[in-house]
Amino acid sequence: MWTRTHSIITKDATAQQLWKLFSNVNQWHTWDTGIEYAKMEGAFVKGNRFILKPKGGPKVSIELVETTPDKSFTDFTRFPLAKMYGTHLFEETAEGLKVTTTMKVEGLLSFLWIKLVAQGIVDSLPVEMEAQVKHAGKL
Fold it and tell me: Considering its fold, how many domains does the chain have in total?
């Protein structure tokens, strides 16, 4: 199993603002420069799915496997012979809001999906997370 985590601490957005940003999947393209679109019907709740179209890549179906409003959510993507999980956690600390994203890949072909998908996501986390906070702070 392969796991990578990135965290930032901010006073520029609240957990509620970040939850509002993420739970509005159909607007992700307005702040995530790496995607063409994301589409979800229904609520941002465990068991629901959405379609994400990365720029230059194929559409991917993603399932929400855990959602705790204003606290955390975990999404799950199935690849041939591998699984990828993205966990997003919002924690209040004395220094400000700690925002943590953890990417995990497991399975027989995990090495391939790390190279094709997951490493690129992890490499972009510092910039993406700052953009998320910036956009959430305006909500």
Answer: 1
Paired sense of beta strands 2-10 and 35-40, if any: unpaired
Tens-place pLDDT, residues 8-30? 999 999 999 999 999 999 999 99
Segments forming the whole domain that contains residue 23: 2-136
Interacting residues of 73 by C-beta distance below 8 A, sequence separation 6+: 22, 44, 64, 66, 67, 87, 88
* Owner of token pair 């603002």: 17
What tokens does 83 get? 């699984």
The CATH number of residue 34's host domain is 3.30.530.20
- Judge contact between 123 and 7, C-beta under 8 A: no
CA distance 84 to 124: 16
